[in-house]
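Worked example (supplementary).
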Amino acid sequence: MILVCGIPTESPVARVIDALSDASAPMAVLNQRHFDDIELEYDIGGGGRLTGLLRIARLRWTLDEIQGVYVRLMDDRQLPELAAEPAGSTRRIACRSLHQALLAFCDVTPAKVLNRTGPMSTNASKPYQAQVIARHGFSIPETLITNSPDHVRDFVAEHKRVVYKSISGVRSIVETVTAQDLARLDQIRWCPVQFQAYVPGVDIRVHTVGEEVFATEITSTATDYRYATQQVDVAAGLEALDLDDGTAGRCVALAEDLGLPLAGIDLKRSEQGEVFCFEVNPSPAFSYFEAHTGQPIAAAIASYLAS
Amino acid sequence: MSHPGDACAPWAWAGLRARGLPMEIVTAEELVFSTSARHRLGRASVESDFVLPSGRRLAFDQLQGTLNRLAIVPENHLSRAGPSDRIYAVQELHALFTSVLYGLPGRVLNRAGPRGLCGPWLSPAEWMAQAGRAGLPIEPYLVRGGAPIPDLVLPAERVVYVVGDAVVIVPSHPGEPPAAIAEGCRALALGCGVELLGVDFAALSHGPWTFVGASPMPDLRPGGEALLDALLAAMVG
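After joint prediction of all chains, the assembly is encoded as:
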């Protein structure tokens, strides 16, 4: 049985459910919004062996029936069902505890999991990830993280066009450093900021599912194609791309090294043909790319989990 | 690298200096309050250098080894920021420290990673599962969604330190553990990707060497001279 955890109407989750359904794979959907009607109980015994039970509404499974898990949870503390609950209420605590038990289960189960909680945190430090990325033969952009305005001025003078963005798991919009930004550099003394040499070229998003690779070429003049409409008034164009074997192999090896059987890898092919890698997303919203290119990513996820 | 209240840092500093190893203590606060922090990544290398509040420059490429006992990022200086700015800044600082401490040259006990600044901080369930898979005897550990996740609360009666290939038993609890226990501790450290691990045992239903917990940042002081010798060997080896 394949367990799908998340909110079933959310696009990537919905596509995985559809793909598993198309493949006639036995499946259970754990809708985290229905936490009141879910029970999970397990025991870790000798040899680290896991035994236990999952109940969703009237259906029950033993945990050894679960051969694969797709997990894409929103922060359970922000669930709409808890909006009216006071802090520390019994229902809030029970919901939190269920999600903690579920995440711990994902880390200890011998089943295939896309993705386990531990490896998901590799994306919480982009420069850490960059060091791993570089070991896999990808170029990484020249990067400076500093709280010193002088170092930033030197870096901008060296690289001319420079962008800045967050380095943690907090999402940020990539922006080009402007004269106005340079005038407010003193603010970085409170918290170091990441600056990167801008790499001109073509953005490529690669999704890896096990050893399967799906590459999408993105056409946009925006600094951050995810916000192309905001930045340049024109939406980004997306097209399926055949990636060369060498780059595809490095993507698979990188995802495997990070412990991520499912990954969304952000590449850029420079004007000189050099392949840069910016980051690896452990919970990719692949549905956006699948919808635009027709690439069977959800089907690959279903096949990986069911095989 | 340590926190100001960490008594293990001056203990290790004094013990390792007495064994001829040049040592310096740098605190998390000194790093966070650096007047100039610079972390560069590129084609060629990883470079970090910080000018500490005292004016001392810390060039990380000159470090030969590090005993890393940083667990969290200090955030007192952000107390006047709004909640969302403070949360953002702490996450950014944590991300920076993870990268700096991961990229340290030489031998590092323990190197930072995505699950912790001085090695992985696993959930109790993961420690129990990993310990069981490493061949260590464990008590059944029950998790029940809806109820609080049980913690590993039993006080340790025996501690085994894994330092690289060496295994050190707390002197105040003499008695060699069975070879399988020492091997299991090594396997647990290897599985967690750490060079330094404190593994706690208590006498329970599986005998005197029943696993009750582990930490990548154990209290070092009970390890005494034998642990200092092992740390020295690991640092210069």
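Two points are worth noting when inspecting this output. Residues 90-108 of chain A form the longest helix (19 residues). Chain A has a mean pLDDT of 94.
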